[in-house]
Prior knowledge:
Elements: H1 5-10, E1 14-16, E2 19-20, E3 24-26, H2 29-40, E4 44-52, E5 55-62, E6 69-74, E7 79-81, H3 91-101, E8 104-106, E9 122-123, E10 130-131, E11 150-155, E12 167-173, E13 176-183, H4 191-195, H5 200-207, H6 215-230, H7 236-264, H8 268-289, E14 298-299, E15 302-303, H9 309-334, H10 337-343, H11 351-356, H12 361-365, H13 373-376, H14 397-421, E16 438-446, E17 449-458, E18 461-468, H15 475-482, H16 490-497, H17 501-505
Parallel strand pairs: 2-16, 3-6, 7-8
Antiparallel strand pairs: 1-3, 4-5, 5-6, 9-10, 11-12, 12-13, 14-15, 16-17, 17-18
Helix pairs in contact: 5-6, 7-8, 7-14, 7-16, 8-9, 9-14, 14-16, 15-16
Amino acid sequence: MADDPITRLLGSARKLEIMQPWPRLEVDRSTWMAIGQHLGGGAGDLLSLWAEAGFVHLALRAAGLDHPCVLSLTIEHNAFPSVGQFHPPAIRLERAIQDLYGFIAEGAADTRPWLDHGAWGISAPLGRQTPAARRDPADYKFLPVKGSGLHQIPVGPIHAGIIEPGHFRFSVNGEIVARLEQRLGYVHKGIDGLLAGCDIDQGARVAARISGDSTVAYSFAYACAAEAALGIEVPPRARLLRGIMAELERVANHLGDIGAICNDASFVLAHAHCGILREQILASCDRAFGHRLMMDRVLPGGVATDLSRKAAADIVATLDGVAPRFAKIVSLYDETPSLQDRTCTTGIVDRSLAARWAAGGYVGRASGRNFDTRRDLPYPPYDGASLEIPVFERGDVDARVWVRIKEVEASIKLLKKWLAELPEGPVRIPLPPQSAPREGIALVEAFRGDVLIWMRIEGGKVMRAHARDASWFQWPLLEFAINGNIVADFPLCNKSFNCSYSGHDL
């Protein structure tokens, strides 16, 4: 391990053997605070922050560590030192911990409710479950904005399109956005609570519904975490089938996003054609796996549905039909000046911000953050794959489009290779009996970035679990991206991010 500050701090921490494949380490309050300071100084990436009864956990990645790790701190007097006071990406996660468990982040700059909109009738539903008076959901103190000529424009939570709810409060000077503040949490479903007490297969169904457009990725992460906890490896055929489903999900979503971005720039033709191509991919998924979104097809131990030779050939034929038509759309996008005028230099995310927030997916890679879980923390079947990871520096809407374009092209190549190499054999193995507590954690690359799932299993049941969507670290960057742009460019910036409300709100 390299001699970096985080590695030195964790050198004497006690390792708990209960978790795989990353180490989980017990730390004291001073070490916890020092880790927060070093994260704030750029010494590592915050991967997630969550709680359970009596503990708070922090997952991180640092250059000097052989693997990412999870740090655990015992809660004292219903509180823990705030990481967010040093490292802003932790702020919203700490607010969620306060809402769900009632634990106070000491020293936090922002202690406003985040997921709790006052409609639960209790406080800390996963903690002490104290009765609480209901309050007006609109009673929320947005941060004050002062300045000559400023006025506010509230948007949402209900929008004109068929999309999920979120509130956006714009402070503007004329048409120029001076600041945007988001309010989310409207589609909180209680995922952490729903997972607790499930048997392993029931938990897989919950995980598959965290964010429907990433159902394969969440199922994949859940399965990998469960398999790590149980110490099992899935058959080779199942590994490739998982990768095939994950890349088909990526292609379908990127096609939809590229078309939607063009639509928000009033280039409806590209939107229509991308919609047709996306539909062809989804229809092929339905024929191959029995479900357009491939929901509930990735399970702990393998996959639920095998792929026939005829279905594999059908996917290849679909990809062969999509690729040349997509290339024409790309040329049209690149050669339309009015479209370039809308997307180039619009909604810029600075490279330093992408690095500080450890922004995943096309948001990070469009701003120079060269990270992809499939390559940098590889898992089957990506551990043996040669991946093309597109990275751009401009950080604007156009760069986020181009990351998607290049990923579609790379995924089509990878899919055709895997479909040609698909080995024979079983697609699922039975889960072994298990009684002692075991923990597993996994990081999987969804189409919009890395998703994390941690779980504790005992007696065949999920005793505690936590899921973190890439959107947790992307939504805040949208607030930066729109600053200095005109209000009319917000839909374009927002669509270029395409953050998940459902995956974030949990």
